[in-house]
Predict the 3D structure of the following.
Amino acid sequence: MMISVALHVILLMFEMLVCNKLENVHDARQPLWTLVFIPLVFVSIIAIAVCIWGFRHDRAFEMELFSSVNILQFIFIPLRLDEIIGWSWVVILIPTWIVLSVALIGVLYAVILAIVLLKSPDIIPEQRRGNVYSAVTYTMLVIPLLVWLVSVLYVHTDGW
């Protein structure tokens, strides 16, 4: 519980730093984006340890998994915003593409499993319904994120 509270406090600190940076954009004394994103890098490092602990002790670790998987994204974005690296946004968002590709594979697996279990006479109706709800929920989460990412990349690259 203490680790979860610490992670949320660090996330709050990141949000406050981002709000401060965005409100005072023209102030020359503002820190670089790289410094603003440091709390997210710390969250990612702590989240890796929490994921390992949660896996070994059969505990839930959804938020921590999201944070630990996106550590490269939390490094690339501030470097691009500070113009330390001049890569295009397509390259910067490669870690997000990888995460969404894995999520899309998970959605396809859930949909296929739901279809197979719908046809199976050995499964009770509650299990069938639960698998269908899971497949629909995963689809409704992943597909809009994928559409958003494609549209962002399309806009930032002036078309393909």
